[in-house]
Every structure is written in structure tokens, then in C-alpha cells.
């Protein structure tokens, strides 16, 4: 019996170890570059001879041509992501409430239009969106990215919030109506407090989507001082002798906050994100 | 306080009409129970009165005011839901005071009225708790408290007791009745449980398939059901119903069934030879020296009495005997009702003769 | 109109505006831009285009199916309850939780033929030089697919884990009692319950994979010699070349590939929503 048990454990480990290496290695590789000096970064060693934090110092002090606007770009990423999170939440919550709880006529049509947008691959929508932004004269304005990301994030947000609000008992609304609540009082005093967990998940989703976005940011923004960190990272590729160790240090600084946020809200995120799919 | 009037009220969902012209007048202070099997339209009727469903045709009035187009919140009604529908994120105090808060009532008035309702319902100790921290019976009371605080013109109850266990249900029944006697607020109460209807109502409206089958005081319904549906629905155990032929001769009347004859009261209606349904309540059947022959198949002592199931020529009759019964399964017995306790219904229409 | 309807319409306005201004108008305008047959003629003449279509099909079919077979297998691994497996699952999510750019760049450096980690390990182990990962078109596209799988595997594994956890334990207990082997349990209990989820997820993943710009662009840039483009990067390439008509024509040409899948998903989810 214990032999059999040991065999099972061994088989599990045989899967587990490759999975661990596979998942972690590219990220460890970023870390490795980030703590290596310029010379040792390219040695192919798994641990630098003299690990250093100098790269981070260089990033913080904006000591390289590619990093002259690091703090500005960090700030751009931050406020754009936060604004997208807020606006998506605002628009999607209103729409989900109208569709799910007020059962507005035409709600289904709007839901389908939103779903349709959600399923059109973002890279395909980018082309017409780019053209439209230039027609609207928004190209190179941070607002073009904000609005584009809200457009991309809202459909899924509406869908998830609608699913979540469909689960609230209908009698609560009826009780509130009989108690004398207007639709807006129902929204403010009953709906919002009960939807709080889903709102946290969706706000985080939209925020991360905007923070992580590369394609739209790089299409819509081009001025060094208004691009996001994601685009700034891409610029490193424009030269052959770029300081890769600085790129990786910056990449780590850029990649860690969303990962941390994700882990903090993991419970909400996984539940919220998988709910829609698992139902099918 | 107010009277409530339904005038030829109809409701359709799409092409399907589910209420076919219901008229009902409820007097000020009256406790009316709408009872019927699920799908009979009783809840829809209540929800239309609450303003939660639109009226397709006809009129609903509270006092003299037609409320068809009036929003729920402006009808001055309070409703207790089957699921209680308490706001999960509010304490008991906040739940009960919510309607007043929406009406921008002064803090002191809210506190005073919530306090009074809590006192009536014995909820003082729970005012700061959340619904999830309460038992089913306590939640039910909070739901009622929320209604009381409003001091509305009409109370609406939608199957308020069906989520409670049997013992609690009996207790809450008494509580609601006591509450009504104390507040004298016009009440419309929906249930599928005829025992609730019988015990609580001033008047009962028995509904079936979108119509009111019979409207009347509980005992009137019990003693003189207007048709087979009401006869079967009201009373537990249910009335025994048998096919029979009515006979008359020399001023005497009786029914013939399976070779036996049961005498009828002198003034019994109906024509000689007419095909009828005979109804007898279980407690009105007697084991005696003559009557319908059968075999006892089940004996169920309930303590206060005994329920017998007797198999008679294909039909199965229930007999309730007071006290203990010496009958045992397998016994051959003869069954007959007292002549005043036989109900006759037309075999084809089901209407009382 | 009741006040509910009035408020409902008012609350829908922000999203409807957003949709009209940033989805419907751009799409219609884009189609209008792509109306001239010349744009298509030019597109079909571009040697890159044909290669791109083949690449896209290979990418979608191979990457998605490989990913799902692995995800299905790993979902079975992760439902084992061991403390270390719970820790491993935290690590396993990382590729999905970290943004693409740093990680894809990291892989790009790893694959550098001269100083990349991969080739230096190969050299140390075998004494031979490793392949030119990103300058050989077939290898480069394969590496893009690998990056794609690496990035999106955790998400789909999570979905399939949720699917597996939704299967009542009694079914496995009953199957065990009936003497089913591990494979038979999978064949007769797991798979029948997961089939619909697996299919829906695969379709959805195909749609998203069609739109995966990062895995190709950030790793290979579409090179060498524009031989690793997929439809998602080709449209953007035309934009960068200032050929907007071509870019739109590319999108229009991909619609026969995308729309049936999108239609399938919208129908499916929209029906679910009404249940």
C-alpha cells in the first residue's frame, strides 16, 4: 500500500516539477537579467556572479536614453489604468442594472451588441478604431487610449455584472419598490451594496486590462511623454544595442504590480472570470 | 385602512390568459385569504394589487381610487414575501425603517415606530443583527415588522409561512391572526394551504385556473362547498367522493351506490334517476349495521382520533373516528353517513345540487 | 412608460453611446474604406498575405489544440489535493497574471542564438551550437505558438479545473465501486460532463488566439522577412506602412474566419443569460 502511495506521489512530482519550471523560468529570467550587470547578463549563467540592484537605481534615476521619462510613463500607465477601471465600472454597472434589474426593453439587444464586441478579437477592432480616433482628432491624446480601453473592457464587465445581478433575488427589488424606492434609490441603496464583490472584481479586471495593454497603447499614443510604460518598454527593441538588463529591470517594475493585484484579488477574479464560461 | 375592489380583472401573458375576469370586494379591516393550487392565479392577483404586475383588463381599486396605473410605492400597501426579501446588507432596524427612510421621515419618528413594531413582534433583542444571523421564524417576523412600520392601508401576504417548519408555521399563524385582530388592517393573504386559509380568514376565496370558484366564510365553504373543486380542496383529510344515482320515492330520497343505499335528508334536491357525485366528509362516515360494504386496509391512530382507509368496490374511502377504534386491517365493515351530511354534486358540471 | 423603463433607458445611454461612437461607427466606416476592389487585388498580390493566412490557420489550429490537450491533462493534475500542489497552482498562474511585454521579451532574449540562455545551455550540454530560433521562419512561428501557449495555458486550465470540480463526487465514487479504472473514469464520467465546456472553451480560445497580436509581434516582429505574420499583426503592419485601406481589407478578409465563431459564442452566451 505505501509503495503504491509513493508511486502516486512520484507520478505527481513527475508532472509538477516540469510545470513549475515551465511556468516560472521566463519570469525568473527577467529577474536574472534585472539583477545582473551589463557584462554578466549575457553569460548564460543561471545566477549572476555579482548580483546587483544597480539596474533598478538606473531606472529610478532615469539614467538612460530609453528611461528619460520613466516616472512620467509610470504615472501615465497608472492614471490611465485607474481611469479605465473607474469609467468601465460606472458604465457597466449602470448598463447591467438597467438590463438585469429594470428589465429595460431592448436590453437584450444591447447585451448582444456588447457580447459581439467582446468576441471580436481586439487586434481586428484596432484598425477601425485607430482610424476613428484619427477622425475624432484624438490620436496621441491619452483619452483615446482611455476611451478605447473602456470600450474593450465594458462588454465583458456588463456580461459578468449582469450574470451576478441576475442571481440577486427578484423579491428584493419588489420589496424595495413597495417600500417606496425609486429606481435610483433601489440602485444606490440596495443594488450597489449587494454587488460590491463583483464590482471589485470588475474594476480590477478593467484596471489590469488597461495597464497591460500594449497594442492599442502603441497604436494610439506616440509622444515620449504621454505613452504608457508598456509602449516605452517596446521602444527598447528599436535599437540593437539596447540595455537589456535595464529593460528587464523596468519590465519587472512594470509587471509586478498587476501580478500583486491579481494575487490579492485572486478569489474574486477567478470566480468572476470563470463563472461565465463554466455555465456553458 | 381601506377597502379593496377587483372588478373583472384579467391578466394575460402573451396570448395566454391566466386570470379570466376576477371580481372581489374586500371590506375595510377584513382578512381575506386567496387559496388554491399552484398556478391558479392567486399570486398574480396579489401581485397586481401590489403593483408588481400590470393589469391587462379590468380595474383594481383601493378605497375609491383606481390604482391600475399607480406605482407600487404610491399605493400605500405593504407586502410580506415568501422568501422574506429582507435586505441582506441592512440590520433588522434598518430593514424595518427602510420605507420610512425613503419617505424622509424624521429620525425620531423612525426610531419610535420601529421600536413599537419590534415590541409587538418581540424583536427588540435583534434590532442590530443582520438577517443572516436570524432564524427562519425571526426573519419572518422582521418581514412582518417591515410591513407594520409602514402603517399601510393594506397588508399583502404572499405565502409567508411556506418556508417555515410545521411547528413554527402553526405558531406564526396564530401570531399573524392576533396581529390582525390588534391592528385591524385590511389584509389579503395568499396561500396554497387550506388549513391556513380556514384558520385565519374572515373570508376565503378559493381559486382555480384563473377563476374564483367560491367566496365565503371558512365554515360556510366547509359546510356547503359550491362545487366539486371546493369540496375536494377544503378540508383535511379530503372529502370522500363517489359516483352514485339519486332515487326518490314517496317523499323519501336516497342514493344508490355499489349495491348499498344511503338515505338523504327530506329536502334533498335533484331528480329521480339523476347521476350524481356523492360527497361525505371523513368524520361524517359511521361504521354501522348497514351501508356500503368495505374492507379496512389501513388504520392510522392520530392520538385524538383514528383514521381508517376502507376499500369499497374499487373506491377508497377515508373515515375519521373520534377516540380509539377497535378496527383492524382486514375487518369487513359497513359505512353510512348521517343523512344531513351528504353533499350532492351534478356528475357532469360538478356544481352543488 | 413606467419610471423603471425610463430610468433603464437612461442608464443604458452611456454604454450605447460608447458602442455607437467607438465600435459601430468605426466598423462601418472601416468597411466603407475597404469597399474598393483594388484594395483586395493589392492585398492578394502581396506575397506576405498568403503566407499570413497559412500561418494564422496553423497558429489557431495547432496552438489552441495543443493548449487544450495540455490544459485538460493539467486540470486533472491540479484537482489532486496536496499542499504542494496548491502552492504550485499559485506559481502556475504567474504567466497569466504578469503582463505580456516583459515576459515575451524575456523569452526573446532567452532564444537569442548567440547569448541566449537556451543556446548556452545546449552548448554546455552537447558542445554544439543551438538553432537560430527566431531567424528560421518555421522555428520562429513555433516559438510564437509556444509563447502563446505559455501565456494562456493557466487561464484555460483554471476553467477546466472549475469544470472538473463541478462534477459531483458521487459519480466517481459510484464508478469506483463499479470497478472503473482511472482511464474508464475519465472516459465515462469526466469527459461526458466536460465535453460541452471543452468545446465552448476551444471556440472561445480560437477567437482570442486569432486576435493574439503580442505573441507574434513582440517575439518575432513578424519577421524574418515578414514570414511569421498572422492576420492580427498584418493589419497593424499595414497601418504602420500607412496603408489603411489594405489594413481594413485584411480585417474584412478575416471575417469569414472570425464571424462564425463569434456568432456561435454570442448565441451560446445570450441563451445562457436568459435561463
Architecture overview:
The complex is a heterotrimer of chains A (about 280), B (about 350) and C (about 280). Chain A has two domains: about 1-60, no CATH class; about 70-240, Orthogonal Bundle (MetI-like fold). Chain A contains twelve helices and no strands. Chain A has helices at about 1-35, 55-60, 70-100, 105-120, 120-135, 140-165, 170-180, 185-210, 215-220, 230-235, 245-265, 265-280. In chain A, helix 3 (about 70-100) packs antiparallel against helix 8. The longest helix of chain A is centred in the first third of the chain and has 33 residues, at about 1-35. Chain A is globular, with a radius of gyration of 23 Å. The model of chain A has no long low-confidence stretch (mean pLDDT about 85). Chain B folds into two domains: about 5-235, 3-Layer(aba) Sandwich (Rossmann fold), CATH 3.40.50.300; about 240-345, OB fold (Dihydrolipoamide Acetyltransferase, E2P) (Beta Barrel), CATH 2.40.50. In chain B, helix 5 (about 165-185) links the parallel strand 7 and strand 8. The radius of gyration of chain B is 24 Å and the shape is elongated. The model of chain B has no long low-confidence stretch (mean pLDDT about 90). By secondary structure, chain C is mainly alpha-helical. Chain C has two domains: about 1-35, no CATH class; about 45-275, MetI-like (MetI-like fold, Orthogonal Bundle). Chain C is built from 13 helices and no strands. Chain C is globular and about 70 Å long. The interface between A and C is large, with 100 and 102 residues.
Fill in the keyword field for this structure.
heterotrimer; B: 353 residues; alpha+beta; Rossmann fold; OB fold (Dihydrolipoamide Acetyltransferase, E2P); 2 domains; 5-stranded antiparallel β-sheet; 36% strand; elongated; C: 275 residues; mainly alpha; MetI-like fold
H-E order of chain C: HHHHHHHHHHHHH
Portion in strands of chain B: 35-45%
Oligomeric category: heterotrimer
Kindly state the percentage of residues in helix of chain C: over 70%
The CATH architecture category of the largest domain in chain B equals: 3-Layer(aba) Sandwich
Topology (elements, then pairings):
The complex is a heterotrimer of chains A (280), B (353) and C (275).
Chain A: H1 2-34, H2 54-60, H3 70-101, H4 107-119, H5 122-135, H6 142-166, H7 170-179, H8 183-212, H9 215-220, H10 229-235, H11 244-264, H12 266-279
Chain B: E1 4-13, E2 16-26, E3 31-35, H1 42-50, E4 57-62, E5 65-66, E6 77-80, H2 92-102, H3 107-120, H4 136-150, E7 154-158, H5 166-183, E8 186-191, H6 194-200, E9 203-208, E10 211-216, H7 218-223, H8 228-233, E11 240-249, E12 252-257, E13 260-263, E14 275-280, E15 285-288, E16 292-301, E17 305-312, E18 315-322, E19 332-337, E20 343-346
Parallel strand pairs in B: 3-8, 3-9, 6-7, 7-8
Antiparallel strand pairs in B: 1-2, 1-4, 4-5, 9-10, 11-12, 11-14, 12-13, 14-20, 15-19, 16-17, 16-19, 17-18
Helix pairs in contact in B: 2-3, 2-4, 3-4
Chain C: H1 3-33, H2 37-45, H3 47-78, H4 83-92, H5 94-97, H6 100-110, H7 117-126, H8 137-165, H9 169-177, H10 182-210, H11 214-217, H12 231-240, H13 244-274
Helix pairs in contact in C: 2-13, 3-8, 3-10, 8-10, 10-13, 12-13
Amino acid at each position: 500500500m505505501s509503495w503504491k502511495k509513493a508511486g502516486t506521489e512520484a507520478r505527481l512530482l513527475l508532472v509538477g516539477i516540469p510545470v513549475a519550471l515551465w511556468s516560472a523560468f521566463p519570469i525568473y529570467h527577467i529577474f536574472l537579467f534585472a539583477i545582473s550587470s551589463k557584462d554578466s547578463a549575457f553569460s548564460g549563467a543561471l545566477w549572476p556572479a555579482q548580483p546587483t540592484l544597480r539596474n533598478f537605481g538606473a531606472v529610478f534615476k532615469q539614467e538612460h536614453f530609453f528611461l528619460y521619462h520613466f516616472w512620467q510613463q509610470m504615472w501615465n500607465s497608472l492614471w490611465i489604468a485607474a481611469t479605465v477601471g473607474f469609467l468601465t465600472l460606472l458604465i457597466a454597472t449602470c448598463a447591467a442594472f438597467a438590463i438585469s434589474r429594470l428589465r429595460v426593453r431592448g436590453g437584450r439587444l444591447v447585451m448582444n451588441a456588447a457580447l459581439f464586441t467582446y468576441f471580436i478579437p481586439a487586434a481586428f477592432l484596432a484598425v477601425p478604431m485607430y482610424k476613428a480616433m484619427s477622425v475624432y482628432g484624438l490620436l496621441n491624446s491619452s483619452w483615446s487610449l482611455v476611451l478605447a480601453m473602456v470600450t474593450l473592457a465594458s462588454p465583458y464587465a456588463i456580461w459578468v455584472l449582469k450574470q451576478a445581478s441576475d442571481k440577486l433575488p427578484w423579491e428584493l427589488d419588489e420589496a424595495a419598490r413597495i417600500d417606496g424606492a425609486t429606481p435610483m434609490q433601489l440602485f444606490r441603496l440596495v443594488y450597489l451594496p449587494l454587488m460590491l464583490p463583483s464590482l471589485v472584481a470588475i474594476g480590477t479586471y478593467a484596471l489590469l486590462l488597461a495597464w497591460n495593454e500594449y497594442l492599442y497603447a502603441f497604436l494610439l499614443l506616440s509622444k515620449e511623454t504621454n505613452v504608457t510604460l508598456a509602449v516605452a518598454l517596446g521602444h527598447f527593441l528599436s535599437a540593437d544595442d539596447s540595455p537589456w538588463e535595464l529593460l528587464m529591470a523596468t519590465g519587472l517594475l512594470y509587471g509586478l504590480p498587476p501580478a500583486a493585484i491579481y494575487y490579492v484579488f485572486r478569489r474574486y477574479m477567478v470566480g468572476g472570470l470563470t463563472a461565465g464560461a463554466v455555465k456553458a | 385602512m381601506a377597502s379593496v375592489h377587483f372588478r373583472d380583472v384579467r391578466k394575460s401573458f402573451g396570448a395566454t390568459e391566466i386570470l379570466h375576469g376576477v371580481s372581489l370586494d374586500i371590506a375595510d379591516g377584513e382578512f381575506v385569504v386567496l387559496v388554491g393550487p399552484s398556478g391558479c392565479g392567486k399570486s398574480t392577483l396579489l401581485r397586481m394589487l401590489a403593483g408588481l404586475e400590470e393589469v391587462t383588463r379590468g380595474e383594481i381599486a383601493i378605497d375609491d381610487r383606481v390604482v391600475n396605473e399607480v406605482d407600487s410605492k404610491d399605493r400605500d400597501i405593504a407586502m410580506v414575501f415568501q422568501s422574506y426579501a429582507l435586505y441582506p446588507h441592512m440590520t433588522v432596524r434598518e430593514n424595518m425603517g427602510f420605507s420610512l427612510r425613503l419617505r424622509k421621515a424624521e429620525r425620531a419618528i423612525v426610531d419610535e415606530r420601529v421600536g413599537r413594531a419590534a415590541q409587538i413582534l418581540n424583536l427588540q433583542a435583534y434590532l442590530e443583527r443582520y438577517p443572516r444571523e436570524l432564524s427562519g421564524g425571526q426573519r419572518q417576523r422582521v418581514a412582518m415588522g417591515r410591513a407594520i412600520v409602514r402603517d399601510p392601508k393594506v397588508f399583502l401576504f404572499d405565502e409567508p409561512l411556506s418556508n417555515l417548519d410545521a411547528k413554527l408555521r402553526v405558531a406564526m399563524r396564530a401570531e399573524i391572526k392576533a396581529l390582525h385582530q390588534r391592528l385591524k388592517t385590511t389584509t389579503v393573504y395568499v396561500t396554497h394551504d387550506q388549513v391556513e386559509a380556514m384558520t385565519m380568514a374572515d373570508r376565503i376565496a378559493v381559486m382555480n385556473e384563473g377563476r374564483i370558484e367560491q367566496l365565503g366564510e371558512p365554515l360556510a365553504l366547509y359546510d356547503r362547498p359550491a362545487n366539486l373543486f371546493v369540496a375536494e380542496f377544503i378540508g383535511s383529510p379530503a372529502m370522500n367522493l363517489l359516483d352514485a344515482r339519486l332515487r326518490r320515492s314517496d317523499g323519501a330520497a336516497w342514493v344508490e351506490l355499489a349495491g348499498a343505499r344511503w338515505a338523504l335528508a327530506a329536502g334533498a334536491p335533484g331528480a329521480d334517476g339523476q347521476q350524481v357525485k356523492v360527497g361525505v366528509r371523513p368524520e361524517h362516515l359511521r361504521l354501522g349495521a348497514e351501508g356500503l360494504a368495505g374492507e379496512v386496509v389501513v388504520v392510522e391512530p392520530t392520538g385524538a382520533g383514528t383514521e381508517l382507509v376502507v376499500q369499497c368496490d374499487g373506491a377508497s374511502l377515508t373515515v375519521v373516528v373520534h377516540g380509539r377504534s377497535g378496527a383492524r386491517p382486514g375487518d369487513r365493515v359497513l359505512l353510512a353517513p348521517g343523512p344531513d351530511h351528504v353533499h350532492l354534486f351534478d356528475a357532469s358540471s360538478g356544481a352543488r345540487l | 412608460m413606467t419610471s423603471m423603463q425610463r430610468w433603464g433607458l437612461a442608464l443604458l445611454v452611456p454604454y450605447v453611446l460608447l458602442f455607437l461612437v467607438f465600435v459601430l461607427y468605426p466598423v462601418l466606416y472601416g468597411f466603407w474604406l475597404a469597399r474598393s476592389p483594388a484594395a483586395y487585388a493589392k492585398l492578394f498580390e502581396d506575397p506576405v498575405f498568403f503566407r499570413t493566412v497559412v500561418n494564422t490557420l496553423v497558429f489557431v489550429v495547432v496552438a489552441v489544440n495543443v493548449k487544450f490537450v495540455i490544459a485538460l491533462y493539467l486540470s486533472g493534475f491540479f484537482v489532486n489535493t496536496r499542499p504542494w500542489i496548491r502552492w504550485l497552482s499559485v506559481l502556475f498562474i504567474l504567466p497569466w497574471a504578469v503582463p505580456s511585454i516583459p515576459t515575451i521579451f524575456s523569452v526573446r532574449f532567452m532564444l537569442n542564438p548567440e547569448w541566449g540562455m537556451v543556446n548556452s545551455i545546449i552548448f554546455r550540454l552537447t558542445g554544439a551550437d543551438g538553432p537560430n530560433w527566431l531567424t528560421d521562419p518555421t522555428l520562429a512561428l513555433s516559438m510564437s505558438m509556444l509563447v502563446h501557449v505559455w501565456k494562456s495555458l493557466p487561464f484555460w486550465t483554471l476553467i477546466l479545473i472549475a469544470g472538473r470540480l463541478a462534477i459531483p463526487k458521487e459519480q466517481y465514487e459510484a464508478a469506483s465501486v463499479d470497478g472503473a479504472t482511472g482511464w474508464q473514469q475519465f472516459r465515462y464520467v469526466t469527459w461526458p460532463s466536460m465535453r460541452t465546456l471543452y468545446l465552448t472553451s476551444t471556440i472561445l480560445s480560437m477567437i482570442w488566439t486569432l486576435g493574439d497580436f503580442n505573441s507574434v509581434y513582440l517575439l518575432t516582429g513578424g519577421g524574418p522577412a515578414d514570414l511569421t505574420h498572422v492576420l492580427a499583426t498584418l493589419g497593424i503592419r499595414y497601418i504602420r506602412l500607412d496603408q489603411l485601406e489594405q489594413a481594413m481589407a485584411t480585417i474584412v478578409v478575416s471575417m469569414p474566419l472570425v464571424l462564425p465563431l463569434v456568432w456561435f459564442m454570442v448565441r451560446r452566451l445570450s441563451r445562457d443569460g436568459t435561463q
